[in-house]
Task: inverse folding
């Protein structure tokens, strides 16, 4: 089992692995877990956990010339900086990841990545990228959140109506018509995102507010892709949907030396 931090307060319970700076459990008191976690996920250093909130950084997807999908942050060992109980309902945790000999081979810049998690009635996740190099660099990234749902057939996502998106399955640019529902594989990078995204399920309604982001990835692998995926049971696609607060596709961020960019997701 990996090293992880377990947090409990009057409002919620969470688990964060140092491998990947990965929140793999979040549950509000008296409710079902909000994040999906694959029952057959790997829990090994250097492997990404299947479920929770993988951190895709310093690139999203697999840009040209890269062999590692979604960057290296999700498989790197982070350092625990602090855990503070703000009050009985709120706990704050900070983790960090810095450049190393290994990362410089993959991404030739010095950086500091800080993950601030605030646990309570809401889950706040903040990813701060600081450029410690003398050269500017560009990043794409995502808080690749797997939301647990009662059944994918009952899911409806709103807040992205009329937004342009790249359909990653056809590489065509499209515009969203109405709310999103699922009856096949969906893999889309929405652009110009400026509203709270609402995930309605049979049993509950969740909200995702993103700051420092104008793109959002919506993904469900459906039957065929799910059966080919690692660390996921064949019919797991029924149990989750990913809504990923992102800087992806056209939403690339340039970070100058000694400057930072913050990507935040507020989930409730
Ligand atoms: C999503 C991508 O963000 O992540 C999908 O849009 C991809 O194309 C999915 O399949 C899962 O990626 P991975 O590397 O965790 O299997």
Result:
């Amino acid at each position: 089992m990996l090293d992880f931090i377990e947090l409990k307060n009057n409002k919620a319970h969470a688990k964060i692995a140092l491998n990947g700076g990965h929140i793999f459990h979040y549950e509000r008191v008296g409710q079902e877990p909000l994040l999906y976690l694959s029952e057959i996920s790997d829990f090994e250093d250097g492997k990404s956990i299947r479920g929770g909130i993988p951190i895709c950084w310093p690139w999203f997807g697999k840009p040209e010339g890269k062999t590692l999908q979604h960057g290296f942050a999700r498989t790197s060992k982070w350092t625990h900086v602090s855990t503070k109980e703000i009050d009985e309902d709120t706990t704050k945790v900070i983790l960090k990841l810095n450049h190393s000999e290994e990362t410089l081979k993959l991404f030739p810049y010095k950086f500091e990545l800080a993950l601030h998690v605030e646990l309570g009635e809401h889950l706040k996740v903040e990813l701060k990228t600081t450029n410690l190099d003398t050269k500017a660099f560009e990043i794409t990234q995502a808080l690749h959140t797997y939301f647990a749902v009662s059944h994918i057939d009952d899911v409806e996502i709103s807040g992205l109506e009329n937004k342009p998106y790249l359909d990653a399955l056809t590489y065509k640019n499209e515009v969203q018509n109405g709310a999103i529902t699922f009856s096949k594989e969906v893999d889309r990078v929405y652009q110009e995102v400026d509203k709270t995204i609402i995930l309605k399920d049979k049993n509950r309604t969740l909200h995702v507010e993103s700051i420092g982001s104008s793109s959002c990835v919506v993904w469900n692998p459906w039957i065929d892709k799910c059966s080919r995926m690692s660390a996921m049971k064949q019919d797991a696609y029924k149990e989750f949907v990913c809504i990923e607060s992102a800087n992806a596709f056209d939403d690339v961020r340039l970070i100058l030396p000694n400057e930072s960019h913050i990507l935040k997701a507020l989930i409730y």
In short: Helices lie at 101-106, 222-228. The first strand starts at residue 4 and ends at 8.
